[in-house]
Amino acid sequence: MKSTVTHFSAKQFAVLLLGGILLIFPGVLGSATGAHCIFAPAAGVASAHIEASRVGVEILQQGGNAADAAVAVSMALAVVYPQAGNLGGGGFIVYRSAEGKNYVLDFRETAPAAARQDMYLDSAGAVLSAKSTLGGLAVGVPGTVRGLFRFHRRFGSLPWAKLLEPAIRLAEEGFVLNRYVSRSIRSAAAAFRKFPGSAAVFLPGGKAPEPGDRFYQKNLARSLRTIALHGERGFYRGEIAREIVKSVQMNGGILTVEDLKQYRAIEREPVVISYHDYRIITVPPPSSAGVVLAGLFNSLQTIDLGRFPFNSPQYIAFLSELEKRYFALRNQLLGDPDFIRMPLEQLYLPQFAARIVKQIDYRHPVPAAEISAQNLLGSESNQTTHFSVVDPAGNAVSMTTTLNGSFGCKLVAGSTGILLNNEMDDFATKPGSPNMYGLVQGRANSIAPGKRMLSSMSPVVVTRHDSLIGLLGSPGGPTIITSVFQVLLNLIEHRMDLQQSVSAPRFHQQWLPDSVEVEKNRFEPAVLEKLKQWGYHIVQRNHLGDVEAIWRKQGGWSICTDYRGNGIPAGY
Length: 572
Ligand code: DON
Hints:
The chain has helices spanning 10-22, 50-61, 66-80, 144-155, 160-173, 179-193, 196-202, 218-230, 233-236, 238-250, 257-262, 289-300, 313-333, 344-348, 350-358, 373-377, 479-492, 498-503, 525-534, and strands at 36-40, 44-47, 90-96, 102-107, 175-176, 214-215, 266-268, 271-275, 278-282, 383-390, 396-404, 412-413, 418-419, 460-464, 467-473, 507-508, 516-519, 538-541, 548-553, 556-561, 568-571. By secondary structure, the chain is of the alpha+beta class. The strands form five sheets. The chain has a seven-stranded antiparallel sheet. A seven-stranded antiparallel sheet has the order 7-4-3-11-10-2-21, with helices on one face. Strands 16-17-18 form a three-stranded mixed sheet. Helix 6 (179-193) packs antiparallel against helix 7 (196-202). The longest helix has 21 residues, at 313-333. The chain binds 6-diazenyl-5-OXO-L-norleucine (DON). Residues 382-384, 402, 404, 423, 426, 455-457, 475-477, 480 line the site of 6-diazenyl-5-OXO-L-norleucine (DON).
């Protein structure tokens, strides 16, 4: 097979590694924290797996456009990055054509028709959290295949079946497991053992495969061939649909053949945020990305952020207080626009953002319990993956997709080789109780038949003076939004290059729990001490996010994957 990944010589690699190790950022401790970056004059892909990035570049070099490459990358990720890449999950795409047209596709999962608001509560009203995360009842109606098919029909140029060939090959002929995927399988092993079909796929010979082992998914290859041949109908009707439903129902779920047949991917109006002379294009509800990012950036337009040095206590405190308020709004007000009314005009309003900023005195954090959507509005009422693709013509695809938890609900449907999501846990299974990301959400996001659960997925495309500047996104549940926010701030406000922007230490506040999460060993102790003195509760986390980004660089593109994950960029 002709390899199309930009390869480095051993010497170049050593220089790159050393460069990564030596990169010093204000307020940074630790080492080996440099993003993996390449320079590509024409086109490229940043994804969470080397094989997927390579597949994308192959398709581009065969004359495919960014939409073709995105379909092929997504299908390849379903094989080589099974903890998040998927056929049985959902996601969002932000697409920008070379002519400057923006487009958003929502292929988020929906609650099955038999879903009920209290389906995860016991008779005493207590949350049965295992039910919304593990096994058949956790499964939302998958959106990925319909989403990709629809996206391809609209913007693709190569035949659909051709774009599935690399994924079929990887599933049929196997691929070499890297340490990262092998570790993920090992951590999910106990859950896989609960489902014999899943164990047969992921624990061949009864145990988790080792790094360096060749990993085969023959059943998945067969399903991919069916989808290559019959398109979306190959998944939503016929044998695969029947197998999915049977397997979900045998494992406590309520999904029906009719649910699959009825599923629709929906084109939505992009959210366009103006920040200085940049435009940040992203997704509206049922993802909360657009509302929260618009609020954060609108708020920053009303102050001079430059007076807070990068990652100083003032900077972290101020932004955390801001994030706390927008997450309170998110968690209490947002949900599926086809089911609830949201005060979006107000939330997008610059005056509203200015009012939020005026409430903040960063030396005196307001306890989360005292912040509510109602008082903010005034009297009125482990695992996802992102990839970015740019083609030589300048078409760009920014796509985030997920099964929600790592390997979703851990259930492989019958003999299809297809893992199913546990996206139902993104609903407020009991308004006021935390979900698996600790998000405390309200009635706006409660369960109803056919409703989409609120997401934090934040694929973005950025333009300046109407020309494409870059695109990025991340996994990480609610930390997706704050990871994307901080990388954008680093690029736009702090003028860092892409490698520095992606590598810089991150922090996160999501209203409740009432704490600021900071990346471990990456902030000066004195900075954290100061924050504690002011009354912030600090929690250390290993990593926040795993950004896959492409940004304009003179004569081409800088393409970076995050040191926090295991992605490798590719380009030419
Ligand atoms: O849609 C959402 O917000 C979540 N289901 C995303 C899950 C995720 O990012 C997990 N990754 N680490």
